[in-house]
Amino acid sequence: MKKIAIFLIILLSFSLLNAKQLISGDKVMHFTSSAFITCWNYGFSRDILDQNHQKSLVFAVSLTGSLGFGKEVSDKHLKKTYFSWKDITFDLAGIALGMIIINNTR
User: Fold this and answer.
1) 3-state DSSP: the chain helix, strand, coil percent, rounded to 5?
2) I need a labelling partner for 8 at 20 to 30 A (CA). Which of 15, 17, 68, 94 fits?
3) CB of 26 within 8 A of CB of 90?
4) What is the reported pTM?
5) 73 CB-near residues (< 8 Å, 6+ apart)
């Protein structure tokens, strides 16, 4: 099931990349990276740290959300660009996809 979930993330990513008129490649990367990192963090918490489902889910969502938010703060202060709420939105959508995958494959 994990392989199917990863395949679906990759397939969805390529589908979104082909729709460049609607969504930029950067947003696709935020979406897919957040989905993958959420799944990975859940697996780490559940399998390595031996936490229960609820704690692992909270760990995965919290850490992935913090990474996305930290990246935007870094963009603003270190790269001197801007904080993008659109990127955060795509991060949250990716986290939601990751949660859907976790709840349907574990």
Assistant:
1) 80, 0, 20
2) 68
3) no
4) 0.76
5) 83
